[in-house]
Amino acid sequence: MTTKKSEISSPDSSTSNSRSKNVPLRIIIVLIILTTGIGTAVFLKKTAPKAHKVEPVKRAQLVKVQKCQSTRTQVTIPCFGQVVAARSVNIKSQVSGEIISINPNFDIGARLKIGTELLQIEPRDYQLELARQQAVEKKAAAALELEMGQQDIAHQEWQIYQNSGAPMPPSAQLALRQPYLHQAQAEYMAAQAAVEKAQLSLQRTIITAPFECLVLDKQVDLGAQLSAQTTVSSIVATDVFWVEVVVPIDQLSWLDLPDVNSTSGSSANIILQGRKHQRKGKIIRLLGNLATGSRMARLLIAIPDPLDLQRPLKQRQPLLLGDYVEVNLLGHTLENIISIPRSALHNGNQVWIASTDNTLSVRNVNIVWKDRQRVFIDRGIQQDEAIILSDLTTAVDGMAVRIAQATESH
């Protein structure tokens, strides 16, 4: 029996022994696999290509620049104004009567020379009055002459009376007829004045142009009955017109103003709208009050020969009263100044300079004057420096730039 049990249990024992023998083998296989994997990893790491660090390339901004040159320039103040008459007169009749003749050239829009007869009023009443006053003058002259004769007689009698030793009369003036002489002299002077007045009234029956003029209005015609102070016509002088302009008060210091800071005024160029021809003028006065609404200073500019009569007939471009014109006032001259386009100015008083090391430099500048197109600077930019004209989206001090094209300042 014992022998059978032993035979029955022997298969399990053989299986257990077999597994025990396989354990070391498995460990060896695992170690081999790990070693192989680690070795491969180390090999791949050592033999893998290395990635070199590449420095980023700085991209320089392409810019257009202008070389700065010191120059001199004249301050020009642009403004607008209206043409007005320098002298405007309403001609009125100084005597009454009927208009018996009228100059055919006396009409609206006509140009008349000084002394040109405009019209004549019926003169006969004034001629008769002059004759009457002349007769009165002659009568007074005769009375004065008679009294002068009486004066001689009175002086002779006075000498005889003094030599006789008789008592002196109470009034020597009465004895010498002094009051009579004064009366005769006064009547003669009054007669002379009446004659002069009659002559003046007769002269005033002819109305003439007081100066070279342009007729703006005519209110009478042949046969009209005039009374004293009746308006006959409105005229303006043609030797000079004025243009009234307004400028900011802070710009007056750039101008020569008569009786303010100079004996003569600054010159002005007047540009006629729609016409190529320009006219020359001069500031003659700073008006004493500001323009209503704008609070700006008012200036008067005189323009000689406004009708352009000195030029050939076909080349004339006359100024028209009431016309609006563009005016450039020529102010003081700026010396040693740098001029740049307005587009090159940033943030009110900054410019961008392309330095010699091809980097951008932000500069603060001092602005002396600026007009519609240009800015004039006296500090902050040096001669021959390159100012950047390009409009950059972002401008940082020290950023790299490349110069595309350089132009000279002007």
From the structure above, extract its key features.
4 domains, rod-shaped, 410 residues, conserved putative lor/sdh protein from methanococcus maripaludis s2 fold, six-stranded antiparallel barrel, disordered N terminus, 28% helix, five-stranded mixed beta sheet, OB fold (Dihydrolipoamide Acetyltransferase, E2P), alpha+beta, Elongation Factor Tu (Ef-tu), domain 3, 4 helices, single chain
Summarize the SSE layout with pairings.
Layout: H1 2-47, E1 61-67, E2 70-85, E3 88-92, E4 97-102, E5 111-112, E6 117-121, H2 124-163, H3 172-175, H4 178-203, E7 206-208, E8 213-218, E9 225-226, E10 231-237, E11 240-247, E12 267-271, E13 278-286, E14 297-304, E15 324-341, E16 350-354, E17 360-364, E18 366-370, E19 374-379, E20 386-388, E21 401-408
Parallel strand pairs: 1-21
Antiparallel strand pairs: 1-20, 2-11, 2-15, 3-10, 4-6, 4-9, 5-8, 6-7, 8-10, 11-14, 12-13, 12-15, 13-14, 15-19, 16-17, 16-20, 18-19
- What count of helical segments does DSSP give? 4
Cα radius of gyration in angstroms: 55 Å
Whole-number mean pLDDT: 85
- Strand order across the largest sheet: 2-11-14-13-12-15
Provide the structure class: alpha+beta
Secondary-structure element string = HEEEEEEHHHEEEEEEEEEEEEEEE
Looking at the structure, the CATH topology of the largest domain is Elongation Factor Tu (Ef-tu), domain 3
Low-confidence stretches: 1-11
What is the molecular shape?
rod-shaped
The fraction of residues in strands falls at 25-35%
Helix content: 25-40%
Q: Identify the CATH class of the largest domain.
A: Mainly Beta
Distance between the termini: 133 Å
Tally of DSSP β-strands: 21
Query: What is the CATH H-level superfamily of the largest domain?
Result: Efflux pump adaptor protein, beta barrel domain
CATH architecture of the largest domain: Beta Barrel
Largest sheet descriptor:
6 strands, antiparallel, barrel
How many separate structural domains? Answer: 4
